[in-house]
Amino acid sequence: MEKKYTTLIQAGELLPHIDDPAWVLLDCRFSLADTGRGERDYQESHIPGAVYAHLDRDISGEVVKGKTGRHPLPTIEKTVDIFSKFGIDENVQVVAYDDACGALAAVRAWWMLRWLGHDAVAVLDGGWQAWQKEGFPVHSGTETRQHKVFIARPRNDMLVTTEDVERMREDPSYLILDARARERYRGENETIDPVAGHIPGAVSVPYSSNLSTQGYFRPVDELRRHYQRVLSDIPAERSTVYCGSGVTSIHNILAMLHAGMGESKLYAGSWSEWITDPERPVSAGKERV
After folding, report:
1. Helix or strand run (H / E) with residue 78
2. How many CA atoms are closer than 13 Å to the CA of 279, on its beta-carbon side?
3. Which of 133, 164, 182 is the last residue of a domain?
4. Is residue 216 domain-shared with residue 255, that is, in the same domain?
């Protein structure tokens, strides 16, 4: 394999590889409001060679009411089957993209591959819009890849549990980052989850702060300064990110890693799992930003 892309890739860097059998492209477009829209958009037009990865069907597990969040991680067995179907083995470079600046299924696919030991995976900076803006070629219809054997090598130290978060939030040597919009952190205008607010002690760090006004990740030096201010003297490895369902928070993990800050951990259950137990504390209003 040539250069390994492990965080972000630009559209111009991807273009020469769209016919390369050693590269796998995952179209991860998805809409929470219309869960079938991303797949319809894919069938209408997508980057040549890309296969479609559905957030609910392919890269999330079964929701257990009262126990899990809205997008729990799938079992390792299911994930191995899906990635094998997508033609991923240890010899391929994977690129994931969506039309939400990487914030939806693209970052989930990126993180899951890393979690299971596959480092050669990157997110297309600027996503589908960046590809269209360049006027690069597109295909329509449904594409498939030759089945490969994906071998999982789980790195479970990339994850934290609800019990871990309970402990960490009261330990000043750890930091919990809430990646949702500030108004949801404050408990305002909550339209998705049945309980509004945030985990007590969490710091508000919206994933949107990683992006330029054009929808690309901010330059590395800007991201580094941003997260140096957020983390202060706490290493990224002692920070944990969460959001509503454990998807968009990964945007912050990607941004920190791309900026050379180290790798934060994921609370995959996130807010929607935290609130399944009414005994867990909830804060609202302005706290830490």
Report:
1. helix 76-85
2. 3
3. 133
4. yes
Active site residue 243: yes
What CATH number is given to the structural domain containing 97? 3.40.250.10
Q: pLDDT tens for residues 72-130? A: 999 999 999 999 999 999 999 999 999 999 999 999 999 999 999 999 999 999 999 99
Exactly one of 130, 243, 250, 257 is catalytic; name it. 243
Can you tell me which residue has the tokens 């016919």? 19
Whether 143 is covered by a domain: the verdict is no
Q: How far apart are CA 243 and CA 1, in angstroms?
A: 35
Q: Is the Cβ–Cβ distance between 175 and 240 less than 8 Å?
A: yes
Question: What are phi and psi for residue 110, nearest 5 degrees?
Answer: -60, -50
Q: Report yes or no: 51 and 58 within 8 Å, Cβ to Cβ.
A: no
pLDDT at 287: 67
Beta bridge partners of 283: 198
Distance, in Å, from the CA atom of 143 to the CA atom of 166, rounded to the nearest integer, reads 44
In this prediction, residue 288 carries a pLDDT of: 62
d(CA 79, CA 67): 21
What digits encode the pLDDT tens for the residues 231-245?
A: 999 999 999 999 999
Give the residues of the chain that fall short of pLDDT 50: 1
- Other Cβ atoms less than 10 A from the Cβ of 19: the count is 8
Q: Which residues contact 114 (CB under 8 A, 6 or more apart)?
A: 121, 155, 158
Residues in a beta bridge with 25: 95
Q: Which amino acid is at 105?
A: A
- Distances, alpha carbon 236 to alpha carbons 33, 112, 265, in Å: 33, 19, 8
Identify residue 278 by its one-letter amino acid code: P
Domain that holds residue 29: 8-133
Longest dimension (CA), the chain: 54
56 is a domain residue: yes
Same domain, 119 and 187: no
Copy the structure tokens of residue 31: 């809409």
The answer to whether residues 164 and 104 belong to one domain is no
Domain count, the chain: 2
